[in-house]
Amino acid sequence: MNITSAKFVMSNSDIKKCPIDNKAEYAFIGRSNVGKSSLINMLTNHKGLAKISTKPGKTQLVNHFLINDQWYLVDLPGYGFAKVAKNTKQRFSKLIFSFIESRPNLINLFVLVDCRHEPQTKDVDFMEWLGVNGIPFSIIFTKADKLSKQKLSENVKAYEKELLNSWEEMPPFFISSASSGLGKEEILNSIDETNKT
Ligand code: GTP
Ligand code: MG
């Protein structure tokens, strides 16, 4: 699939105000600074579409982008970064969970994890919660340009091992780099395959 147009539609702190026009949605979620906004810009060939920052906690609202006038990519605030004030963290979590639980057209959630890190309890617990609640998701290992191929493959294996403690099989996963464009085709193809609207 080619993305021929990507337009910012709206930012919301109130889930009730998100678009209600029945279009399919694909959302990007994960810890602050993992690279959600950068990945959205990479996928859409649009450098300034989603705001990025070296400082965690940049995305604070639910942002809808209309793709090819047909479906939405959704950029969500990050969860679980220690440097964000506690009440801000709680606000983000509430926003994220109410988004996930209230969007009937959410086709898939992409859960981003930094490929350099060991499996983090927050991410593993979050995936378990998604499983229990029947929310379809796939994993994206981000920032692959920061590791050697060898180390990357070791880290992905370690992640798989951890998840197999609670999952019968490894959920679908992708490896990406917002700087090199790695993973773009696979991620867009997976969206294309599930988007029948
Ligand atoms: P919040 O909105 O704060 O939750 O963060 P985010 O997950 O949207 O991360 P963002 O895209 O703002 O990126 C955070 C930092 O990581 C920025 O400095 C990016 O340039 C950098 N970054 C993101 N993706 C990649 C990548 O694939 N490779 C490299 N080398 N850096 C990346
Ligand atoms: Mg962001």
Automatic annotation (TrEMBL):
InterPro entries: G_ENGB_dom (IPR030393), GTP-bd (IPR006073), GTP-bd_ribosome_bio_YsxC (IPR019987), P-loop_NTPase (IPR027417). One of its GO terms (biological process) is division septum assembly. Pfam families: MMR_HSR1 (PF01926). PROSITE patterns: G_ENGB (PS51706). Residues 22-197 form the EngB-type G domain. One of its GO terms (molecular function) is GTP binding. Its cofactor is Mg(2+). SUPFAM superfamilies: P-loop containing nucleoside triphosphate hydrolases. Keywords: Cell cycle, Cell division, GTP-binding, Magnesium, Metal-binding, Nucleotide-binding, Septation. It comes from the Bacteria. Necessary for normal cell division and for the maintenance of normal septation. Belongs to the TRAFAC class TrmE-Era-EngA-EngB-Septin-like GTPase superfamily. EngB GTPase family. This is Probable GTP-binding protein EngB.
